[in-house]
Amino acid sequence: MGRRGRARGRPVNGILLLDKPVGLSSNHALQRVKRLYDARKAGHTGSLDPLADGMLPICFGDATKLSAFLLDADKHYRFRIRLGQTTATGDAEGEILSERPLDDIDCERVEQALGQFRGEIEQLPPMYSALKHQGKRLYELAREGVEVEREPRTVTIHALLLHDCTLPDLDVSVHCSKGTYVRTLAEDIGEALGCGAHVTALRRTGVGPYTELPMHTMDALEAAASAGSEALDALLLPIDTALADWPEVRVSADTAFYLRQGQAVLVPKAPTAGWVRIYGDDGFLAVGQVQDDGKIAPKRLLGGG
């Protein structure tokens, strides 16, 4: 029998709010941060386009068990739209496909057009996206000049605000559900105005509960790394902050024992439905879901502390 190798890296636990720079893929950003931390285990919470910058939460250790919840969470973006031009990719990197005048378009008409895109809307995923068709990414097919049929998806635009209207450019922010394509949103706004549009800048400003907290740049992380692992670890947020807007329940040591065995338990005064954060004497214990019988079933067990 072969011997199992020792786990590489140190056991880091927590969440880093990385301010990803333009030009770096989410995976490359993750690998750079993981090396800086010399972390044993790390993952990100959903890709951010290389051409976009802003918030990319990096989960270390036990926090990786919660990454799917951040992936499903609402997102916040600030972006700039150029009216009058459409491009192959929906952003400034693509070849210009059409140019149309902005006749009769003013800021009042822009505000009216934005109103059509608040609430539940249908979006057709763009060809330049990471969705797969028969095992191949759509953007790979698009680069080969292949276009395939896509099914429209329902997404929710909770807020869509116009911050500046200096035609042909618009400065806009959006709070949206997961799966929303901002480039498609910009293109659809352009079509509603009859002139076409594309995105010229895109920044993610929030993910789930992380909307008002500072982000850390690569330069700041490298500076912290030169001061040692303690300086790096000081930048991490506790694991349970990923679920800060969920109700919490506290359990006794006896109840915690059964939860750790994977058993559903009754907790007095607990919520009657939905997801909960579960805490024991040692701290954050698990993510749980309330069952039809009122018991709370553990869905993700954490290391505690």
What do you see in this structure?
The chain has 305 residues and is an alpha+beta fold. It folds into 3 domains: 14-73 and 210-240, Pseudouridine synthase, CATH 3.30.2350.10; 75-207, 2-Layer Sandwich (Pseudouridine synthase); 246-301, PUA domain (Archaeosine Trna-guanine Transglycosylase, Chain: A, domain 4). 22% of the residues lie in helices and 32% in strands. It is built from 8 helices and 16 strands. The protein has helices at residues 26-37, 67-71, 107-115, 138-143, 182-193, 218-227, 229-233, 253-260; strands spanning 14-20, 42-44, 53-60, 75-83, 85-87, 96-99, 119-123, 132-133, 136-137, 153-166, 169-176, 197-207, 248-250, 275-280, 283-290, 296-301. The strands form 4 sheets. Strands 1, 2, 3, 4, 7, 10, 11 and 12 form an 8-stranded mixed β-sheet that branches. The protein starts with 13 loop residues before the first strand and ends with a strand.
In short:
Strands 1, 2, 3, 4, 7, 10, 11 and 12 form an eight-stranded mixed β-sheet that branches.
CATH class of the largest domain: Alpha Beta
Number of domains: 3
Number of strands: 16
Tell me roughly what share of residues is in helical segments: 10-25%
Provide the structure class: alpha+beta
CATH superfamily of the largest domain: Pseudouridine synthase
Instruction: Specify the CATH architecture of the largest domain.
Output: 2-Layer Sandwich
Radius of gyration in whole Å, from Cα?
22 Å
Q: Indicate the proportion of strand residues.
A: 25-35%
Task: Compute the average pLDDT.
Answer: 91
Helices and strands, in N-to-C order?
EHEEHEEEHEEEHEEHEHHEHEEE
Distance from first to last alpha carbon: 35 Å
Low-confidence stretches: none
For the biggest sheet, the summary is:
8 strands, mixed
Query: What fold name goes in the CATH topology slot of the largest domain?
Result: Pseudouridine synthase
Number of helices: 8
Shape annotation: globular
